[in-house]
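pipeline/complex-builder :: batch 7 item 3
reading input block
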Amino acid sequence: MLDERELAISPIVQSSVQHNAQTISNIRSLTASLFGVAAGTLGLESYPGFIFYLAASLLVSVLIFAFRAEGKASEYFHSPLGDLWLGEVFGGMSGFVLTWTLFYGLVRA
Amino acid sequence: MTLISTSLNGLGLVLLTHAVYSAHEHSLLPTTAALPLDITIELLAAVLLLCIGIVLASPDLKPIKWSVWGGKLSREEHKAAEKAGDVTERDPYEQLDVRRGFLDIRSKRQDFADWVREGATK
């Protein structure tokens, strides 16, 4: 798909790629902490908590796809699956676990 | 767009605070019943509102293909010139669009000669 000829005809703008990755990363880390608050308050434990996080991340991906990428993911991301749908999902997980355990302890202790 | 995202975030934060406080108060009751349904719904609604607000508040994505990106910058050049702040991204086709004409060497010589003559008379 993205062979050398394709890249020679329409080169990739590096600063835009960085800007998009930064934007996705910011959204992910903010929403991950938010999901931690929700999961801790709901009193989720072990697997249901992680499933909640993955489902909520998918929802955020859909929101980004609809509102920010305007349905044209390949125009804004080099590889839409890795950069938009799965981008930074596992990077935000540590923030999720942090607020998850904090709010579980605060609300349920 | 800023107004929508700010109001969504504000409403979401209020609902979230209220839901978490309610859950905390519920946990202080002597009964060990599960979290009431209305608190759960309020919490999930707050999270949804905050998600939409955060996504809408994030900066616009930029196209990664050079032609699309350059064309967009080129079209928005006039607006950007009025704003006159961000100089990190300029129209990449500027050197093709704005080119100097040939130097009119005769008129330049004439100007110089006039200038020299003027200096001599003063």
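note: Chain B has a mean pLDDT of 82.
queue -> next item
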